[in-house]
Write a structure and sequence with these properties.
globular, 7-stranded antiparallel sheet, mainly beta, 299 residues
Length: 299
């Protein structure tokens, strides 16, 4: 857990909370050199959850499920956000950057015009668990210089509500607490929530932002009566006039505190053209990305 304990402010009550539009189970798949994971936000949801392109959840205590890692591979046109709950992953890239992502830490990488990087486990046993989120870049930023930042667990702002809910603010703002990262155009909100049984949380959200919650421990309940069990994503409805969401840890999760990530952002409403690790706005830009990679000038 984080050692950063900023003071949260009192938030105005949520008057018109969002309902759950639908639940998504995700698809079991593998990526990299055979890492087993669940693709929660799939390509067919990119328009609905703009500006988010993908969310992968991974978690296993079997080394064979993760040990091969993600050898060198390219990216262009978006950002990757890797949140490591448990485990150690070494990052290296073509710009000469290198870092170690550990328990509770985040790596935020802006691929921009292009980067080739690898993500390889620095452990041969034990549990590795976390998430990787892909966040789109606006068209005018897709060819910006690449950038990345390793954020150790202790640098992620964290606070606790009067109800005992722990909130880790990776990006955006929650109850007056600024997250570790801010983005002007997509305005992402990324929270890791730890809720004791029966605990309730209200979170403000702009009406026009797309939002979803992924439960990875326990279960959540919404005022509408919808229950979201573990390993399910709840897409939140874009209710006219809505000002946030209200959620509560199920009362029957006493033995396991409920844990979930809440992600929201302002949609870009731009064309999306994707070919594997390249996400641009047009087919012609994709062709150029492939040519640049093949010519060794991507990064």
């Amino acid at each position: 857990m984080s050692s950063s304990k900023p003071q949260a402010s009192v938030q105005a009550p949520v008057r018109t909370p969002r309902a759950v539009e639908r639940l998504v189970a995700g698809q079991a798949t593998s990526d990299g050199a055979g890492v087993k994971l669940t693709r929660v936000l799939t390509q067919d949801l990119q328009r609905r959850l703009d500006p988010f392109l993908m969310l992968d959840a991974f978690g296993s205590d079997k080394a064979d499920d993760y040990i091969a890692g993600f050898p060198s591979h390219p990216h262009r046109g978006f950002e990757t956000v890797t949140y490591m709950l448990e485990g150690r992953m070494r990052h290296r890239d073509s710009a000469g950057n290198e870092g170690l992502l550990g328990n509770g830490g985040v790596q935020w990488m802006t691929a921009g015009r292009g980067v080739i990087h690898s993500e390889l486990p620095e452990q041969e046993e034990g549990r590795m668990e976390g998430f990787q989120l892909w966040l789109n870049l606006p068209s005018h930023d897709k060819m910006r210089p690449p950038w990345y930042r390793d954020i150790p667990s202790g640098e992620i702002p964290e606070f606790q509500t009067e109800a005992g809910v722990t909130v880790r603010v990776i990006a955006g703002h929650s109850h007056g607490v600024a997250g570790a990262v801010q983005r002007e155009h997509t305005e992402p909100l990324y929270l890791d929530l730890h809720l004791p049984a029966g605990a309730r949380l209200e979170q403000a959200l702009p009406e026009g932002h797309n939002a979803f919650v992924y439960v990875y421990r326990g279960a959540l309940e919404f005022p509408s009566g919808c229950r979201v069990p573990a390993q399910r994503m709840a897409i939140l409805a874009n209710t006219p006039g809505s000002d946030g969401l209200v959620l509560q840890a199920a009362a029957d999760t006493v033995e396991t505190a409920t844990r979930a990530i809440l992600i929201a952002g302002r949609p870009l409403r731009e064309p999306i053209a994707q070919h594997g690790p390249f996400v641009m706005n047009t087919h012609e830009e994709l062709v150029q990305a492939v040519r640049d990679y093949q010519a060794g000038v991507l990064a």
